[in-house]
Design goal:
By secondary structure, the chain is an alpha/beta fold. Helix content is 43%, strand content 19%. The strands form three sheets. It has a six-stranded mixed sheet, with helices on both faces. The chain has a three-stranded antiparallel sheet with strand order 1-2-11. A two-stranded antiparallel ribbon has the order 8-9. Helix 6 packs parallel to helix 7 and helix 7 runs parallel beside helix 8. The chain is elongated.
Length: 347
């Protein structure tokens, strides 16, 4: 625990002095009471229990004073608070390899069900957008709080060929920052990217001046990208991750399927797919996020549940003076109340 005004903690040295003063007053009062036989007899009649009661209100009042002094020092502590994440983009792989049944009933259905379960766990005020990607990336649903529209978008996925993980990140960023000029439409062998123009300037129209921020510092949005394969086309995902990092957006990556590689048959053709964990981890690391591996449908659901709790709450150092002040007030009132109840006086 840290303190903004630690110098006030020196006042806590008064607590043991108050304890000594209290016991001195009690001894002095006892000597005076012994001068009167009647009072001594009454004291004996009160018994040990009543004698202990006499010390409880002053003890509670001492605790109240200590709590007030700590509150005056303005303590800071790391506490769990509701996150201010307002928008989450789900970038989901719809390449042909998602038809594989190593994750039951198949990768695509497992991903769809886990995503819908994820939506149920999110607070209603959090906006969610859906980006579907295969050989290209498209916005399936703009960010919205309407969960029914999001479920409809997830259920309407159509499998396609190829995997463009980099495009998925860029389109997700373009969805979060529609006026930033982030665009992948000009990318290709003769694209502006190949001619040395930064990715931020690859879009159409005039560009706004942009100053990079610290990775992970943008707390109003996050991207969750789920894929089961390697990038086979489109923008380099590490270049796209760099753009996300410069804008402070975290890209959480989720890998599904086999890491060692597997041959998948689809509509008369076959392909070899392998989960590129190295790149997914690099994307997450570059953007100050995390990578998760989901080998089964159950694992995938657990991953989304973990992400739900992580994106809706956050640990943050916060001043907790009010808690100590409230505790002091409660202890002081309790001390006064017990004293009035037992002895018909305040302390």
């Amino acid at each position: 625990m840290n303190f903004l005004w630690p110098q006030f903690l020196w006042l806590l040295l008064a607590a043991p002095l108050l304890v000594l003063l209290y016991f001195w007053l009690m001894r002095r009062k006892k000597k005076l009471a012994l001068r009167y036989a009647s009072l001594s007899i009454v004291r004996e009649a009160m018994g040990v229990r009543q004698n202990i009661r006499r010390h409880i209100p002053p003890f509670l009042f001492l605790l109240a004073m200590i709590a007030m002094l700590i509150a005056a020092a303005r303590p800071m502590a790391v506490v769990v608070l509701p996150s201010n994440q307002q928008t989450i983009i789900l970038a989901m792989d719809v390449s042909g390899s998602m038809r594989a049944a190593d994750v039951q009933p198949n990768r695509l259905v497992a991903a769809q069900e886990a995503a819908k379960s994820f939506l149920k766990e999110l607070p209603r005020h959090v906006k969610v957008g859906i980006v579907a990607f295969a050989g290209s990336a498209n916005v399936a649903q703009l960010p919205t709080t309407n969960r029914e529209d999001l479920v409809t978008a997830i259920d309407s996925f159509q499998l396609q060929r190829a995997t463009a993980t980099g495009n998925a990140i860029v389109v997700s960023l373009a969805t979060l920052f529609p006026d930033a000029g982030i665009d992948v439409s000009n990318f290709g062998p003769q694209s502006s990217r190949q001619r040395g123009v930064p990715l931020e300037q690859a879009g159409k129209g005039p560009q706004k001046e942009f100053t990079p921020v610290a990775p992970g510092s943008y707390t109003s949005a996050a991207i969750i990208m789920l894929t089961d394969g390697q990038r086979t086309t489109g923008v380099d995902p590490l270049d796209a991750a760099k753009v996300a990092a410069e804008r402070g957006v975290r890209v959480y990556t989720v890998g599904i399927g086999t890491v060692d590689g597997e041959t998948i048959g689809f509509e008369g053709w076959s392909m070899r797919v392998r989960l590129d964990e190295e790149t997914l981890k690099a994307i997450a690391n570059k953007t100050q996020a995390e990578y998760y591996y989901a080998g089964t449908a159950t694992d995938l659901t657990k991953v989304y549940n973990t992400l739900s709790s992580r994106l809706t709450v956050e640990k943050k150092e916060t001043e907790i003076s009010a808690l100590f002040a409230l505790s002091a007030a409660v202890l002081a009132l309790l001390s006064a109340g017990l004293s009035l109840l037992w002895f018909n006086r305040i302390l």
